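Marked as duplicate of an earlier ticket. Keeping the data here for the record.
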Amino acid sequence: MVKIAERQQEPVGLTSAEAAAQQRKGLGNQITENGQTNLGKIIRRNLFTWLNFFQFGIGVLVALTGSYINLLYLVVVSFNIISGIVQEWRAQRVTNQLAILAGNQVLTRRDGQTIKLNPAELVLNDVIELTAGDQISADAIVISGQLFANEALLTGEVDSITKENGAQLLSGSFVVSGKAYARINRIGKDNFAMQLTLQARTSQRQTSPILKSMQTFNHIASVIMLPLGAALFAQSYLLRGTAVHQIILNTATALLGILPIGVQLLLGVSFIAGALWLSLNHVLVHDGYALAALSRTDVLCLDKTGTITEGKLTVADVHEIKQPAFGESLNQVLQNFITATDDNNTTFQALENYFGGRNDWPVSRKIPFSSDQKWSAVSFDKLGTIITGAPEKFANAATPDITQSILAAQQDGKRLICVGQLPADAATIDPGDAEILAVIAFNDKIRTNVQDVLDYCAEQKIAVKVISGDNPVTIANVGAQAGIKDSDRLVDMASLSDDDITANVAANNTIFGRVTPNQKLKLIRALQSENHTVTMVGDGVNDVLALRSADCGVAMNSGSPAARQAAQLVLLNNDFGNLPALINEGRRVINIITSVSSLFFVKVIYSFLLALVCLGLNVPFPFLPIEITLIDLLIEGYPTFFLQFSNDKRPVKKQPLGYAFSQALPFAIAITIGVGALLAMSGALGLPTMQIRTIAFYIVIWNSLFSLITICRPYNLLKTILAVVSVIVVFIATYLFQHLIGLTVSSITANFVLIGHTLVISLLLYLVSYAGVRLVNLLRDKRSKSRAEQH
């Protein structure tokens, strides 16, 4: 029989003295988070590094020589540091703001009175009063009354759960209906909602390969700079007796060339430009580095409600079976039921939108819907009782024809409810005893552009998985309608323990139903353990952990505040169809970085190799910082700006910077061979030192230009103009500013002759270097293949 709640007596609650004693014992609901990263920590972490120590240390030494024009590189270094601080602080600020509890005041019993307190003022064993619409601010146990709670953050479902005397209430849940008093049994960090929040805040995303590679290059540079710089300085001072100021300038040039300053600048500028593009396309960017993860996405995880579907139920069909025993029609009965019931979930909103409401008969009893019983009822005085609920609750009353209709509708992916009636003299209210009046089918409308997204994923070999708190069969049917591949491969996560969630389970299934927030987290990590790059799209509180742990988290703007704060990107227009454009933008940015960074790595490699050559030949490093700055500006600088507009959407390399480094090798080796040979034969050639330096500089220019011309492929009008203009501008600038940069060219004619000769020499050097690198790679691949065949 249905249990009717007795009149509640208001409990006394704690006294003010008892509450104060609890606070003194440290049993208050305050939360102190000493672990949060503040701006000072971020500044110190980005500023006080060995790399910056060397970069600014070299600057101080150069400044002491009075050659201030050679300090221009510090502008780029400063930009890189500031950019890193801003990016990290923006992401950390959003993380610090992540919260599940709204912070509304709580009705609390103190000294026999009901007062309003802020959640932080609550203490252990406080008695709180809960009514419809309240968010539960601290874990508590019901001591009197009855209510229906929505625990979406635990189950992912919106169905209400009955909570009676002795039942546990979880913080973060909402009261749907009813009234109860509850005694707080967990406070502060022990609260369920706070544990979920702290876990989300401390959850660390995997660092993308491109940032890992950058960190590796920086570490290597930091390790080799001190011994290499010391060796160059000692050799110049002790063996050649060079003036200190000249030693400083020569050594600084070698060391600054080894530092990947330009690559860091490229990363910062590219991610900022990408974030700007996203902002212009209605995407809120919390972390610009999300583009790196987007570009590598090979698994896309979705929540059904609000992502694949619009989350707005509509009545699709009303299959009338029998006329009601009272009232004029089924419509009138349902209109009165809708007006009388206290239910307000999406199913009843759809019923109200379809049937409307009216109030013709007095109501004697109401039983709200809950996920435990999966039905609700309204008794009309002396007329009878109308029941609506899940078809399985009416199984005893269903005829074969009704059962067949229900099965057919379920196969179509529709959500169903049955409408039944009981006579006024019924002893109990049980759907199994009711006569079925109608079966109502609902559609959860699939978003119009879902198919376009799924087609894109199939074309790009991106696996799609649906991770939801809903029934797996329902999700599978919706997935099949939406066109999700292998939607028949489903698993009910309620039947699995945490230990059962393995990489095989995650990889071999497409539909995951009845998933808890912690299970979503484990599924994401299981996929990542197999080297997959996972993008998670969600909108609910139950998606927070998954959004934080995924390589890229994307939230809908219509979702919960906690989901929006946990995600790296927020779709402001709630348009799931934007996802292919976001992935393409990520690919475009990373492909730009991959191609252009090879241009910067040319300087890194030849600076290191030439430094070793200079040590071996006991000669000074042949260039000054201002000379390299000119190349940085005219070959690596403004061309990079124009290349930002390229539109390469191809899948990215697994190790973008590693690939760029390998692409730079032939050009760097060509420079090393050419300049090294010049330095070794300078005495035999009988040429003045300034002319040797000029020829060496032109060899560097030509091979850097070859690298630029290579990365412009595939050519279009803009890239062709860029390549031609770069060649012209760099040699004009070299001639005009030859005295500033310490070179000597006697006349325009002599300059043209030198340009022609060094072009031929540089081209031959590059071809030889390219052939050598290619041969080494072929031999390495052959050896690897042979080893694989042996195994």
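See parent ticket for discussion. The first strand starts at residue 106 and ends at 110.
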